[in-house]
Amino acid sequence: MAHHVLDMPATEPEIRALRIGDTVTLRRWLFGIRDATLIHMFDRGRRTRLDLDGHAVIHTAPNVHRVPISNEAPVGFAPFCIGTTTSMRMERFTDALMEREGVRLIVGKGGMGPATLDAFARRGGAYLAIVGGAAALETTWIETIVDVDLDDLHPESLWQFAIRNFGPLLVGMDSHGGSLFADVQRDVAARRDAVIASLEDAR
Amino acid sequence: MDLDIREFEAVCRDLYVRALKILPPDIKAGFADLQRSETSATGRAILDTMVENVAVAERTRNILCQDTGIPIYNIVIGADVRYDGAALKAAIRRGCERATKDFSLRSSVVHPITRTNEQTSCGIRVPIIHIDFDDRPETVAVEMIPKGSGSENGSFLQMLLPSDGIGAAKRFVIDRVIELGGRVCPPTIVGVGLGGTSDLCMHLAKVAATRPLRSVCSDPEGARIEAELSRAVNELGIGPQGLGGRSTSFAVHVELAATHITQNPVAVNIQCHSARRARATITPGGIAFD
Question: Is there a contact between A137 and B107 if contact means CB atoms under 8 Å apart?
Answer without folding.
Answer: no
